[in-house]
Structure formats: structure tokens, C-alpha cells
Amino acid sequence: MTKPEPLRFPVPAGPPPPEPPGHLSEPMLAWWRSLCDRYVFAEHHLEVLRLACEAWDIAQESRAQVAEDGVTILDRFGQQKEHPAASVWRHNAALFQRLVRELQLDKLSDTPRPPRLY
Q1: Burial class (CB in 10 A: 0-12, 13-18, 19+), 18
Q2: Which of 11, 13, 87, 115 has a Cα-to-Cα distance from 45 of 20 to 30 A?
Q3: What is the model's pTM?
Q4: CA 74, CA 21: separation in Å to the nearest integer?
């Protein structure tokens, strides 16, 4: 006899999944649908998921801009400086990571609890 698998938080099954926001990229629309098919999210978790998807999209757009223009650009004095999109990329990649951690998608737990902040 096998031991039953612990429940994941958010709890699977429930009402029909919510539609994703229309402004998200195709990969994020697919990710949203995939997660909402497997889990039931409270309304505030849907907002966190929306913010995570938006952060990912912004990070990918910024990454593409840096890939096109290079990591550094010349300022008005002809000096090299970091591309402004590199900072946007870094910030939104970190934000995505934090928001996904808030959703606790990879945490096996019998009882839900808030994620650690450290």
C-alpha cells in the first residue's frame, strides 16, 4: 500500500478556472491556464498570479531589448553605462521569483502557512 501524496497549497479542484487577463503574453496565458486548471486560487492569489505574469512579461521584453542593444549603451557624454532595460529586467525577474514564492506552488504541505520572508 502506498502512502497518499500530501495536498498542495493552493488546494486542487473546485469551480471553473478564471480567464487570464487579455494583455498577457502567450506563454503567460498558457501558464495562467495551466495553474488555474490544477489549483483553486483565492481572489488575492489571482492578483499575485497576475502580477507575477506581468513581471515575467516585462522581464522578457527588457531582456529582448538588452539582447538587441547590448548590456551597455553610450550616454550623452559618450561614456558607457548600463542599459536602462537591464535594470528593469533584473528588477522584474526578482519580482517574479518573489511572487511565485508567495503562491507556494512548489511547496508540499499538509497545512498552508505563509512563506518565510528570510
Answers
A1: middle
A2: 87
A3: 0.76
A4: 37
